[in-house]
């Protein structure tokens, strides 16, 4: 029998890039316990370590949730280190202040690491070269590093990194190591095979739910169905009669049933008698949410004001006005929330599929009354993140269950738990107005965003006044078009629904009204949607280049296949510029997306295959939401529970997706999120092109 | 409870669980075979797909009693002496992103190829539409199945 991978105390997830067995999951000791060759190790910074045998270990402080950081980040270090790619090992770093803020989000991993990780590798390379030069008594400049060795070409001498590590460790670490000219990159820009693939095709990758700790028990939690509700009382007697159930304990989030297996815990919760009180949100429903959005006061200071929109509208030959609506959305990661925790005397050890160790350590330490340094947090692979796993609720809850139950416990969320206790993508109402002059030119653009602030709900702070730019106008305030007078303002109601970050955050909302309404302007002006955008985007704008490329590759301007129509949209977010063209048909009321052509300008590309995969994935993620995604609230509780009433796109509905990259030497932009915003408006615009009817509400239902 | 014998990936196991226990939880919690994933508990996502005498089943809806006397194959048993052709193709096409659904995807694809060695697109749709992927790896999965089957992309 293959034993389940176990992650014991002071052990790490480790991967190697070596051949043979390929990438493996191993148990490796942390640096200071690695006795063999300890003195010989070169560890000039938190990111890498080279031992006396030449083994290069890279410590990754970002979470791998499918976006490829476990390959892209090693590529950046190895590029400058001149490491032998096959000899590197990749280790998931435990939570530690030495890594700064450990949060994986905002499509920032490669963007923010591009220079620091290259410098980390370059510093080690300079030390190794200096150590070799000293040993040979030659100038460092006469030596060079390649494939894990330092060579002296004039004499043909070579020394491996392992043989130089001890000497190099005694030298001062250079503060400003020289970085390569990008034209000399040998890894960056190549289709390097992902390091995590073999584990993920053999069932070996350890996700949060796969952690097995000695003595561990399984728990599920009965939580109040109404958002903001509380436990009024419970009787665990019937639950305790279920075979395998051992304890029923109350925790702040609900009542936990602790058992010898997950199934016993689930059965125990079925038998549990528990009463909840609804709290302040017991009457919240869709009508109440719609009212909150429509009636919230507009903040006095606009996010953007250029020219006099009211005057421009008053003087316009033609005025357009439209309201666009977007629903609450769940993340629905394939792996439901889970966390394993072991509260000990004055300390805790946690194994969590989290995007944000740094945001979890603090609340855990506070809840237990211990120092943050006493919180050991191991990050596992994440079975999808999409922003959900940035929230610390599921980590804190597992810690509380472990404390109440005594001993190591894995808390599993069922799909229904996950769907009904999410931090949702906020709902939105967008009111737009535009004015055209007699020649059909755009002279006024007003976008009013009505949606609650996730940032304020999560991080607190005073009510938004408009003095500081609110998060809700992301993707709206930076409307890239030369639209004459521009006004972007917002109304930011409080909502009793837990809100969070959902892949591309407010750009996931604001690109839809912006890009659809611009299409309405094109139709009103009798202009082609592509021509209008190209006319309104500044010459040389990177978004313009992406748009032109996507349109060309999609065959824009040529007749689509019979029964189909095309629509396009473009958007800039997280430092990247993406345009998408959707080709759709409508058969017996069912909208089908046949083909999506994408063009991306994300600056320097680290791994083209990963960029393509992220855009493909973003298109599917955005399409699932555009075609079907909707969370509704009734009597304060989320109605949807599983993949029957919140159903992502399936394989038989999958369009062909082409991704074209704009060659660029600009610094890297993000890639995990920017592919999401354009897809909903591209599809809605294609639907308009097909039917002549404008749909202003997501999901695109009831198409008749 | 009574002791039951399960044959998983060719190995016999005695397990002591109630007869209605889903095979999924016996594999994961009793036998420690965590490659088979929990996604929905309602046969809606297919992450828990395993083979019962070679046929794909949702292990979250298959009781341990139903699995008795049959050969259970999980992702851990898909490769023999060498990787299954699908595992080779999966790597060549760089299919996985987060990877959580991939055990179910591979087991469903392996069952498809076992009885339909040269699948059409419609065959692939029929066999694979029950397995959800939130990362959007569907097109790569289709290419990988065709690559393993040696049919034109």
Largest interface: A-B, 70 and 66 residues
Strand segment count of chain A: 29
- The number of helices of chain A is 17
Radius of gyration of chain A: 27 Å
Q: Look at the structure and give the mean pLDDT of chain A.
A: 93
| Proportion in helices of chain B | 25-40%
Question: What's the mean pLDDT score of chain B?
Answer: 97
> Spans of chain B with pLDDT under 50 lasting ≥5 residues?
none
How does the major sheet of chain A shape up?
A: 7 strands, mixed
Beta strands of chain B, count: 5
Strand content of chain A: 15-25%
Head-to-tail CA distance between termini of chain B: 51 Å
Top keywords for this entry?
heterodimer, A: 704 residues, alpha+beta, seven-stranded mixed sheet, six-stranded mixed sheet, 17 helices, 28% helix, 24% strand, disordered N terminus, B: 153 residues, five-stranded mixed sheet, 6 helices, 5 strands, 16% strand, globular
Topology:
The complex is a heterodimer of chains A (704) and B (153).
Chain A: E1 12-16, E2 26-28, E3 42-45, E4 48-50, E5 56-60, H1 69-81, E6 88-92, H2 109-136, E7 144-146, E8 149-152, E9 157-160, H3 161-169, H4 197-201, E10 217-222, E11 230-235, H5 237-240, E12 245-251, E13 254-259, H6 262-271, E14 273-277, H7 286-295, E15 304-306, H8 309-314, E16 318-326, E17 338-344, E18 347-352, H9 357-368, E19 375-379, H10 393-405, E20 409-412, H11 415-420, E21 428-436, E22 442-450, H12 454-459, E23 485-491, H13 507-525, H14 529-536, H15 542-554, E24 565-573, E25 576-587, E26 590-601, H16 608-627, E27 633-634, E28 637-638, E29 656-661, H17 679-691
Parallel strand pairs in A: 5-6, 10-20, 18-19, 22-23, 26-29
Antiparallel strand pairs in A: 1-2, 1-6, 3-4, 4-5, 7-8, 8-9, 10-13, 11-14, 12-13, 15-23, 16-21, 17-18, 17-20, 21-22, 24-25, 25-26, 27-28
Helix pairs in contact in A: 1-2, 2-3, 9-10, 13-17
Chain B: E1 2-8, E2 11-17, H1 23-30, E3 49-52, E4 55-58, H2 64-67, E5 71-73, H3 85-92, H4 102-115, H5 121-128, H6 138-149
Parallel strand pairs in B: 1-5
Antiparallel strand pairs in B: 1-2, 3-4, 3-5
């Amino acid at each position: 029998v293959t034993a389940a991978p176990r992650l014991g105390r002071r052990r790490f997830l480790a991967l190697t890039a070596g051949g043979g067995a390929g990438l493996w999951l191993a148990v490796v000791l942390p640096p200071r316990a690695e006795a063999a060759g300890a003195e010989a190790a070169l560890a000039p910074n938190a990111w890498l370590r080279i031992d006396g045998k030449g083994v290069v270990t890279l410590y990754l402080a970002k979470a791998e949730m499918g976006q490829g950081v476990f390959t892209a980040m090693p590529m950046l270090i190895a590029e400058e280190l001149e490491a032998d790619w096959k000899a590197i090992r990749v280790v998931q770093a435990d939570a530690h202040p030495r890594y700064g803020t450990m949060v994986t989000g905002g499509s920032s991993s490669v963007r923010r690491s591009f220079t620091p990780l290259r410098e980390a590798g370059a510093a080690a390379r300079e030390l190794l070269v200096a150590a070799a030069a000293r040993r040979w008594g030659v100038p460092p400049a006469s030596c060079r590093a390649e494939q894990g060795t330092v060579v002296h070409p004039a004499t043909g001498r070579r020394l491996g990194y392992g043989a130089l590590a001890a000497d190099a460790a005694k030298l001062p670490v250079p503060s400003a190591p020289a970085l390569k000219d990008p034209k000399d990159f040998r890894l960056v820009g190549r289709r390097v095979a992902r390091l995590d693939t073999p584990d993920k095709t053999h069932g070996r990758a350890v996700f949060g739910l796969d952690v097995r700790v000695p003595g561990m028990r399984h728990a599920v939690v009965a939580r109040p169905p109404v958002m903001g509700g509380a436990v009024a009382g419970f009787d665990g007697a019937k639950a305790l009669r279920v075979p395998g159930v051992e304890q029923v304990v109350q925790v702040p989030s609900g009542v936990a049933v602790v058992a010898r297996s997950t199934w016993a815990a689930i059965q125990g919760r079925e038998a549990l008698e528990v009463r909840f009180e609804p709290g302040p949100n017991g009457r919240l429903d869709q009508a109440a949410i719609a009212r909150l959005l429509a009636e919230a006061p507009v903040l006095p200071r606009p996010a953007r004001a250029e020219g006099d929109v009211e005057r421009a509208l008053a003087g316009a030959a033609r005025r357009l006005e439209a309201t666009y609506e977007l629903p609450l959305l769940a993340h629905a990661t394939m792996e439901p929330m889970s966390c394993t925790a072991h509260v000990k005397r004055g300390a805790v050890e946690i194994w969590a599929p989290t995007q944000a160790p740094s945001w979890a350590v603090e609340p855990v330490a506070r809840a237990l009354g211990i120092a943050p340094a006493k919180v050991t947090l191991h990050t596992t692979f994440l079975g999808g993140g999409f922003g959900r796993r940035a929230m610390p609720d599921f980590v804190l809850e597992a810690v509380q269950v472990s404390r109440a139950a005594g001993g190591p416990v894995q808390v599993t969320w069922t799909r229904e738990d996950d769907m009904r206790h999410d931090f949702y993508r906020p709902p939105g109402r967008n009111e737009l107005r535009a004015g055209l002059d007699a020649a059909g030119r755009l002279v006024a653009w007003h976008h009013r965003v009505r949606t609650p602030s996730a940032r304020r709900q999560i991080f607190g702070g005073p009510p938004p006044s408009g003095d500081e730019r609110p998060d809700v106008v992301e993707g709206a305030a930076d409307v890239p078009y030369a639209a004459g007078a521009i006004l972007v303002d917002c109304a930011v109601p409080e909502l009793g629904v837990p809100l969070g970050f959902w892949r591309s955050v407010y750009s996931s909302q604001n690109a839809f009204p912006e890009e659809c309404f611009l299409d309405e302007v094109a139709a009103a002006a009798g202009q082609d949607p592509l021509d209008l955008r190209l006319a309104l985007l500044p010459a040389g704008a990177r978004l313009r280049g992406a748009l032109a490329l996507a349109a060309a590759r999609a065959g824009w301007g040529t007749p689509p296949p019979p029964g189909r129509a095309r629509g396009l949209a473009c958007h800039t977010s997280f430092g990247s510029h993406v345009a998408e063209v959707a080709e759709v048909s409508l058969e017996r009321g069912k909208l089908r997306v046949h083909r999506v052509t994408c063009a991306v300008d994300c600056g320097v590309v680290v791994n083209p295959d990963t960029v393509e995969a992220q855009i493909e994935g973003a298109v599917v993620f955005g399409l699932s939401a555009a075609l079907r995604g909707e969370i509704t609230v009734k009597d304060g509780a989320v109605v949807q529970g599983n993949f029957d009433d919140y159903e992502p796109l399936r394989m038989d509905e999958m369009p062909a997706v082409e991704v074209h990259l704009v060659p660029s030497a600009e610094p890297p932009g993000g890639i995990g999120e920017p592919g999401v915003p354009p897809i909903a408006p591209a599809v809605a615009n294609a639907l308009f092109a097909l039917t002549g009817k404008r749909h202003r509400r997501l999901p695109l239902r009831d198409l008749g | 409870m009574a002791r039951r014998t399960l044959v998983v990936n060719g190995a016999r196991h005695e397990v002591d669980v109630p007869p209605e226990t889903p095979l999924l939880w016996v594999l994961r919690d009793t036998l420690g075979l965590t490659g088979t994933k929990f996604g929905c508990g309602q046969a809606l996502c297919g992450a828990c797909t395993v083979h019962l005498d070679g046929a794909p089943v949702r292990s979250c809806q298959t009781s341990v009693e139903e699995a008795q006397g049959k050969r259970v194959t999980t992702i851990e048993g898909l490769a023999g002496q060498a990787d299954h052709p699908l595992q080779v193709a999966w790597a060549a096409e760089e299919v996985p992103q987060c990877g959580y659904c991939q055990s179910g995807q591979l087991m469903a694809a392996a069952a498809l190829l076992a009885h339909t060695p040269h699948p059409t697109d419609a065959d692939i749709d029929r066999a694979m539409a029950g397995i959800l992927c939130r990362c959007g790896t569907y097109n790569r999965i289709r290419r990988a199945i065709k690559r393993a089957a040696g049919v034109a992309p």
